[in-house]
Write a structure and sequence with these properties.
The chain contains ten helices and 13 strands.
């Protein structure tokens, strides 16, 4: 009996490993219709991905995060100036950030910034959020406006009594709290509202999800070494039935700190609110994943140093000085995932 149990556990581990190593499928998705969103560090990552790849990203939904390159490559600036700015730790000025962003575009490190004028932007700040001040989100509004995004294409929701969390219609904890899993029931469908703003009129969400959640090999799409750039070996995606045969759009949803599958299981993937809308609107939702890192570690024969104990996306430079550009390791990995979804079926 003991041998039987050991074999059962071994088979389960082998099966889990096999699932983790499944490649992200090529589904012929529309490469010109990409949108992004995220909460907290995921919101900063959504902005970075939008700016770095402005020629293909049509819009960004951002909860509790601020303007591009706010952290200036410094974790101290990220924590103080770009989350709860004060007299001695002010937010970087919009004109300073624009000048730096324009310089990166001239150096061809990011896409031409004139692409940003056509973006659609949806912003959220909860009245109970003490982690990221509303002024930070308002600065992001100002950043997009400075690049010519008309006021009617920027939605800013700031009247909901939410803590620092992904806000949903019915999933998660009480609306005002800031606590794991950082998914709050506020009787407000943030995912649905941001998708409607970014994509235009949508069909109502499905009463029940009918697509599939896939767990794919994220390591393969991270230059073979996700660990060294603070990413998990496995990522997740939601694929509606319609997208198995027809062309669909892609939305990338970035979780926040302490909100990866490593930290809270699949709750963000299943409860953030995107999947029911995806079902009825031919939308593939990509859920890339980070991991926690606490210093030196080894993957294969390679040592790397990453200090990211909360599993945040890199918006201050823990993966290197190019973190906010197309060459940023995490941005490049997520772009590879989007490209894979857009590859012709069967490739």
């Amino acid at each position: 009996m003991l041998l039987t149990r050991v074999l059962a556990v071994a088979l389960a581990l082998i099966a889990a490993a096999a699932r983790a190593n499944d490649p992200l499928p090529a589904l012929g998705a529309d490469p010109r219709a990409v949108t992004v969103s995220g909460i907290s560090s995921g919101g900063y990552m959504a902005v970075q991905f939008n700016v770095a790849h402005a020629s293909i990203v049509a819009g960004a939904g951002v909860l509790a995060a601020g303007p591009y390159y706010c952290a200036q490559g410094s974790v101290v600036t990220a924590y103080y100036n770009c989350m709860t700015p004060g007299t001695w730790t002010p937010l970087p000025g919009i004109e300073q950030l624009k000048a730096q962003t324009d310089g990166l575009a001239r150096a061809r490190s990011i896409d031409p910034t004139d692409n940003l004028a056509s973006a659609r932007v949806w912003l959220f700040s909860g009245t109970g959020d003490r982690t990221v001040d509303p002024s930070v989100v308002d600065a992001l509004r100002g950043f997009y406006a400075r690049y010519g995004v008309p006021a009617e294409r920027i939605a800013f929701v700031k009247d909901k009594p939410a803590g620092h969390a992904m806000v949903t219609e019915s999933a998660g904890g009480p609306c005002p709290v800031t606590a794991a899993p950082f998914i709050n029931d506020c009787d407000f469908d943030a995912a649905g509202e941001l998708l409607k703003h970014l994509l235009g009129p949508l069909d109502p969400p499905a009463a029940k999800e009918s697509g599939r959640i896939i767990r794919y090999d994220q390591k393969q799409l991270s230059a073979g070494d996700a660990f060294s750039i603070g990413m998990a070996d496995s990522g997740y995606a939601y694929v509606p039935r319609a997208c198995e045969a027809a062309q669909c759009r892609v939305h990338v949803a970035f979780h926040g700190c302490r909100q990866s599958v490593e930290a809270i299981g699949e709750r963000f993937v299943r409860e953030a609110g995107y999947n029911r809308w995806a079902d009825t609107n031919r939308l593939i939702v990509l859920y890339p994943q980070t991991i926690t890192r606490n210093g030196w570690g080894m993957a294969g024969l390679r040592w790397s140093f990453v200090f990211n104990p909360r599993g945040c996306w890199d918006w201050w430079g823990y993966t290197g000085s190019q973190y906010m550009t197309r060459a940023g390791p995490q941005i490049a990995a997520v772009k590879a995932m989007v490209d894979r979804l857009a590859a012709p079926r069967g490739s």
